Structures are given as structure tokens and as C-alpha cells.
């Protein structure tokens, strides 16, 4: 399968077959990379971070702190207003803030690759 990499300013567009991910370099108070999945076929069984693109959750009412049920586990969370850097205008939108290991049910180090 062919891989295409295109770098434009603060983003890198990666296309592999019919999967397209744009990795955004965000610089403000700190620097971090943000993968934005822009094209992902539904019939492909992806694993890792890309395979977690469609997380199902349920809000648990009546808790003192916001609580969601994700993959049969109740987790404490918070509702925050953030910028959506996938769009050029970077609008402010509301979203749930949840620790990565809770969503992925693995540690971030499990997704580290030694070579590409």
C-alpha cells in the first residue's frame, strides 16, 4: 500500500490507501501534535489510536462530578470548552475531557513504535 506525506505549514497530511489523517502541530502555551482523522472507511478494522475514533458513551445523571459510562466503566470527567483545530476557523466547542488510558483502555506507551 502506498503512503503519501504532504507538509503544509503546521500540519502534515498522511494518506494510506483510503485512510487520511492530518497531524496538526499546535503551538500556544505548549507544543503538541493532534491527529485529526479526516477519512476513515467503516469497513476497515483499524487498531491503536485510529481504531478508537468512534467511542460510545453514556452520561450518568445525578453525580456530583460529571460521570460517563465508557466500555462498561464509569469514569469521572469534565465538560470543557476547547478549540477545534481541525477547522481553519478553529471554533470553540464543548467536549468531554477524559484521560487517554480510559478511552483506549491501554497506556499511551503501548502505542509507541520504534521504527517507521
Characterization of this structure:
This protein is mainly beta. It has two domains: 1-41; 52-111, no CATH class. It contains one helix and nine strands, in the order βββββββββα. The strands form three sheets. The chain has a four-stranded antiparallel beta sheet, with no helix packed on it. β1 and β2 (11-16) form a beta hairpin.
Name the beta content range: over 45%
Largest sheet strand order: 1-2-3-4
Shape: globular
Which regions are unreliable across 5 or more consecutive residues at pLDDT < 50? Answer: none
Helicity, as a percent range: under 10%
If you compute it from the alpha carbons, what radius of gyration comes out, rounded to the nearest whole angstrom? 16 Å
In sequence order, what are the helices and strands, one letter per element? EEEEEEEEEH
N- and C-termini, Cα separation: 14 Å
What integer is the average pLDDT? 76
Question: Helices and strands: which structural class?
Answer: mainly beta
* Structure summary, number of beta strands: 9
Number of domains: 2
Biggest beta sheet summary: 4 strands, antiparallel
* Continuous helix count: 1
